[in-house]
Amino acid sequence: MATAQLTSAASSISAKGFVSFEGLRASSAVKISSFSPLKQRSFRGLVVKAATAVAPKYTSLKPLGDRVLVKIKTAEEKTSGGILLPTTAQSKQQSGEVVAVGEGRTVGKNKVEIGVKTGTKVVYSKYAGTEVEFSGSNHLILKEDDIVGILDTDDVKDMKPLNDRVLIKVAEAEEKTAGGLYLTDASKEKPSIGTVVAVGPGPLDEEGNRKPLSVAPGNTVLYSKYAGNDFKGADGADYIALRASDVMAILS
């Protein structure tokens, strides 16, 4: 009898692909085949890409064009207080050391060499490039344009942005509402205002020359809310590195 009570609901599912819960009662038998339309859905955004393993017989990896090979910095296994972090809690690395570079690219009639050299420590976009397991270590092959900046220290405020990138110190979120009520961390709105700390040399034009950026260190700017890459500085402040095109206005 319990099975019979769901017959009309199951028919509705298979016919339209939508479930009608009107008059539904508890049952011990539900046919999963009714949900077959879900099999056609694409979940590409949920795919986890594993590193491509290069066989030990290959001893050299030479990037082509404007690509760069970066040896990924090992993820922190402990907190600053010495607590061991599980693998799932270790943050995805965005820094490493350049170990090989391509021959560059052609812009207009000019040949433009890669702007970073072997041995340079760099910071790159979080989801850029292709991860490769080579010579016993994890590496990343990415385009030069995916490199955010050069970082010779462990403090992000010392980053030297590349190309059209801008490094901004994010303004602190408001602690109170206009009515004087204190806000919890969860309810504080993410700021979209900050102070420019450093700027890159600018993008290349069609002749291969650098075009200077319209913002400069010290400017207070308004930027796109979901742009760029977020970092935490050694001073506890929040920083963001983004493209100059994501800066919408200069405030004064």
Could you give the order of the helices and strands? HEEEEEEEEEEEEEEEE
| Strand elements, count | 16
The side-by-side strand order for the widest beta sheet comes to 1-7-8-2-3-6-9-10
Task: Supply Rg.
Answer: 25 Å
- Binned, the helix content reads under 10%
For the residues shown, what is the average pLDDT?
Answer: 77
Could you say which overall geometry the principal axes of the C-alpha atoms support?
A: globular
The biggest beta sheet, please? 8 strands, mixed
- The number of distinct helices, counting runs of at least 4 residues, comes to 1
> Can you tell me the residue ranges where pLDDT is under 50 for at least 5 consecutive residues?
1-48, 84-90
Structural class: mainly beta
First-last Cα distance: 74 Å
The amount of beta strand, in percent, is: 25-35%
Describe the structure.
The protein is mainly beta and 252 residues long. Helices cover 4% and strands 30% of the residues. The chain has 1 helix and 16 strands. The protein has one helix spanning 7-16; strands at residues 52-53, 67-72, 95-101, 105-107, 110-112, 121-124, 130-134, 137-143, 147-150, 160-161, 165-170, 193-199, 220-223, 229-232, 238-243, 247-251. It has an 8-stranded mixed sheet with strand order 1-7-8-2-3-6-9-10, with no helix packed on it. The protein has a 6-stranded antiparallel sheet with strand order 14-15-11-12-13-16, with no helix packed on it. The protein has a two-stranded antiparallel ribbon with strand order 4-5. The protein is globular and about 65 Å long.
